[in-house]
Fold these 4 entries.
Entry 1:
Amino acid sequence: MIASLTLPAPAKLNRMLHIVGRREDGYHSLQTLFQIIDFCDNITFTPRRDGEIHLKNAVSGVDHDDNLIVRAARLLQQYSGTHLGITLDVEKHLPMGGGLGGGSSNAATVLVGLNHIWRLGLSLNALAELGLQLGADVPVFVHGHTAWAEGVGEQLTPVTLDAPWFVIIHPGISVSTPSVFQDPQLTRDSRPITMARALQGGAQEWRNDCEAVVKKRYPPIAEALDWLEQYAPSCLTGTGACLFAAFKTQQAAQAIAQLSAKRWPTWVAHGLHTSPLHDDLGYFTKALGN
């Protein structure tokens, strides 16, 4: 076995998010465009032969066994029947609860990484099905491609979007996703559109149906959105709290980010077509001759 391996867990942005209905199970039917970006957590894997799953740097206030990273490792261990274990060390950069998919991406990186380290040979489809048990956003990170998504976000079709530079702002507050989706004023009946229309329409078709409710419930998010809107069309990702705007060049994005950083935590990230997780894992696999 390898001594250790460090893999990225990238963030995503919802370039658009339409809510087109509410299902009988209480979940909402969505249409969204997921874009992978080069803003990442990093997870270091150290194999164990004793079968133990250990997370070195547990999140404050979250029980070790309830952590999504640990749950992902145990789910794969139980599914595969392997007797191997793992020690996981997470270097966090993505803000928790920011709408960037950090927890789901961490879980996906664990599934994909352990499939390689434990030599399980499972397909990405099988890993994505397992990941769906952990969260609706996990499959897009498992497949690792910018995608059009429907259902609760698990019905994925790979697409190629533009790859601009993004300014991402976190207004410094937490958003309750259940509260947003339970809000009686939330738009739940957007007219479904085709993937082709969404891609051809671009920004004219792209909006986030959660945004109006979130802005009303969380004035700091409304303030940040209004501020960023001065410089470029801006949008909430997921239910927030993060928001973003796209710029054609890194220089233009960095100029706005310098202004934003005087008031809020701010990052500049580049849009990607494929996940750095798969890029890095492919490199390691080639280097090892596997």
Entry 2:
Amino acid sequence: MSTLAHTMMTAARSNDSGLAGPGGLDRYPYAEAPAADRAGAPVWEGAEPELGRVGRRAAGSRGRGLHGQLVQQLGQMIVSGDLGADRPLVPEEIGQRFEVSRTVVRESLRVLEAKGLVSARPNVGTRVRPVSDWNLLDPDIIEWRAFGPQRDDQRRELSELRWTIEPLAARLAAGHGREDVQQRLADMIDIMGHALAQGDALTYSRADAEFHSLLIQIAGNRMLEHLSGIVSAALQVSGGPVTGCDRPHEASLVHHRRIVDALAAGDGTGAESAMRQLLTVHPEVERVVPAPREH
């Protein structure tokens, strides 16, 4: 195994770190909900007041700390339907329920608004937006949907999206491949093979996600490149129907190697074909959604 592969193998087992950066949070104008609406405020039963426990389950790209954990908790509740569009989200009540500061609540709501999940308007307050307004391509929302009541739709949609994006990316990448990039792809396969032998599913999935993300990035199409995060999120949550990527096995490694070999030969058709075989749904495997990933 190359030095790069060994380094990334080690890094894959490390926890992500970093706190959300500060900003002008108190300048963000979240209005107090009208008094008439406060009687219909959401009941927070079932939500976890000890946000540290939420953070240990998943903090993801939202960062560590109370802010990232509150985004995770509220995002899951919105996507699951526990917080409906007919109920106002009052920052003061959220802060009291989860025992966090006004600044943490405001910043968390700002993140959720950027994802299209909530909106804040003067004299109206903060409310959950309809699903049609959500940024369904956001990796966090992909994760929340994958483990919520919409998981069946999420699996189907992710599978269809990957089937559209990745074979095309593989074909285009055959014309843009460089030796250093091909070596990095090969390193990811080495990591996956070693992880498979060790029964290390987490390292396998992270190397797999890196492989597919890198392949899209070298396709030479900037619009496709912006979708690499979606594919990475899909792989890490296994939100789609079971494919050659979702369950580690030797056949999956064979298809990955065929893709790299085709790229080295400049064979776009072969790379596309190998990717389609890798993404073929295996009907004999039960379609289940795994437990949320650990970070």
Entry 3:
Amino acid sequence: MSVVPADVLPGSALAVDEPAVCAAELGPRARLWPSLAAVYRAQLSRARVARIPLLFVATFQSVGIMILMRGVVDDGVEAQAVVAGSSVLVVAFVALNLLAQYFGQLRASGGLDHYATLPVPPAAVVLGAAGAYASFTVPGTVVTAVFGCVLFGLPMAHLWILLAVIPLAGAALAGLGAALGLLAPRPELATLLGQLGMSAALLLGVLPADRMPEVVRFTRDLLPSTYGVEAFARTFGPHPDWAFVLGDLAVCAAVGVVSLAVATWAYRRAAVR
């Protein structure tokens, strides 16, 4: 009687026709748009209570600036610049300043580790947070624009252009704010950079460009919010040049794509450290 090892029998449970250990199949990679929608809803729900008082402050600040400027600037082009700049300033306060602080604190507290464990693409985290913060600017921007038109006697026929100005300028400023917060080595520096960016949007966006020196005008052209201000201000005229309006909005869109791409790279860089 011969002894045959059990593992070579054809019908044995121990027979090995394949590798004994197979790699477990991973689930499908999370798609961008569903992940983006999930992050957006989570951020919107989280920040709804905490950011409403700050949104009130941003709106009150812009309205106060217009009241102060009412006795300084003349009607016409200067009034159009003040109203447009004050309206976009609400977007800069939330999308640039607050988002830089948020990502700076998130990086310092280790909150990025939580997002790094989620099966969502890095772009969804950045875009979802940026979109949620930019959404909070809609009521304040509309209120500021309507109040400014009443205060300076400007027409409201083309206020619908805010439907394009708010998301495009918000994307450009939110991407910049997120990048500043993620690249800053300390949260205090992220807060400082966000406030400096908002101050630049205030000084270079609200004040009429005709009264600025040439060097300051060049600096103004480098600010993403400038093109949102210009696009909005052009619509107050009796016959707006829509080609220039679309051109300014296109610049906002291009800067938004670049700034959000930089913010996504900064997120990957910060998450692996």
Entry 4:
Amino acid sequence: MTATARTAPDAPGTPATPATLVIGATGTTGSRTTAHLVAAGRRVKAGSRRAAPVPGAEPVRFDWYDPTCFGAAVAGADSVYLVPPVGDPDPAAVMLPFLDRARAAGVRRAVLLSSSAITEGGPAVGQVHGALPGLFDEWAVLRPSWFMQNFTGSHAHADSIRADGVILTAAGTGRVGFVDADDIAAVAARALTDDRAPDTDLVLTGPEALSHDDIAAVLTEVTGRQVVHHRLTYEAMRDRLAAAVPPAFAAMLAGMDRAIAEGAEDRTTDTVHRLTGRPPHAFRTVAARELTAHPARPDIL
């Protein structure tokens, strides 16, 4: 694939350069994808519920549950990065009507953020994955493994690490090819702007498969604070999650942990290297980058 040339500013009186709409532009992958696109000279419409300012981008209001904002969000866009609504067990119900509208408005390429654990036509966002090739001639589905930022950002794992020095899962000794969110964003930017769209799904991983015990050991070494992995049963994990998300979604998430324990995520791929031209970041690198960069903030870990 070859990258599209840098977009020059529009001259007065000429039609506006087509934009990429990034949904979830203030989130973990959306903010990073926006930054990559802006750095490449791409015009970006940064969609978020409050139309929050994002450096180099045009803020626009976007809420999956408010169709009245759809028209303004897609106006002038020829491509869209799709981050599904968080915690919704049936995202297709709100996403598919939007995608129909986006296509009618002139969007020709869509890149969907899914998960390595969810296949085409599977539960939740798998239904959107199944519909995407029939809606757009140019498309890609990113299926990243679990984010490394789950242990460094605002995820429940990071919260329990900061509060108690523990990681709680039902994953047992199962290994996962954890991936850096910045690597996901780098692939997303290429999938959105390369002359040829991938027109397939892409499983994204880091360079090695690690157990949660391995993750705890790396965090202990990097931060100097003891972190341990506590192994829960599927039922205990499901009930813990159900205190924060709908029961059906909690059961699905706990089921993903159980699948990890059975070896479903013990793999690595070359996708990041193949699409970006550089190897994916290792967890130790990401942990050092994100957990030692703020020495004045004791809340980091």
